[in-house]
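Quick one:
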Amino acid sequence: MSKHSSFRFAFLLLASCFVCAVAQAQQTPQSSLPDSPGAILASNVPPASTDDISSSNQSSAPQQSNPPSPAGNQPTTDQSGTQTKRILGIFPNFRAVSANTHLPPQSVKDKFVTATQDSFDYSSIFLPAAVAGINQATNATPEFRQGAAGYGRYFWHDFVDQASENYMVEFIVPAITREDNRYYTLGSGGFLKRAGYSISRAVITRNDAGHDTFNISEVVGAGAAAGISNLYYPQPERTLNNTLDKWATNVGIDAGTFLFHEFWPDINKALFHTKN
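Output:
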């Protein structure tokens, strides 16, 4: 694996560990908490005898019980899977759909808009900037050389890599295959169930009819973007091994992104005590 991919996988691993820790903290069972003083006192009060209860019922006048208020009968809506438009108020989260939300099919325009938002949002420079700095420090592509000019070459190559993958996976391929590029949050169940579901979205997605299908957009789109990168990288870098490596890295990063999308509502609530 190249140094470029090693950094991306290290970043993905750290993010996944953080997600795991926060999600497990959110799922701490209430039974492990100490009993409240009220519960302890209540447990020490002896129960009334049946004789006392029957005599009390006979001596008291029959009373009509009040019907429960309408508010008490209202079902509680679970908002644990509510997504925000941005993560940490900065990074785009436009494709994530809140749990139990049903949306109409995506139009071709919708797919183009989401790909454009992910590629040219003001925050889209952060990851390429960080990756370019690491790649230059490790001399991942010697042909780019060092210095400010060398960093500029690293940066624009990484930026184009990101935009190319976004458009292939979120717009061009799903427009052809009629697949939905949005991430639908599961929002319920244990950590392993939700984590497995989110990672599986790299190979399973919904089509425009709302049915599960093989994620051609992700698998084929990520591979196509890796192949396109050979058009603008130096000749020594245009090898089959590098292309396959970029392909696997693209799919792996997207799977990690889905994992973060799934648990972002929990992280948001745990860290910032946000009410959904």
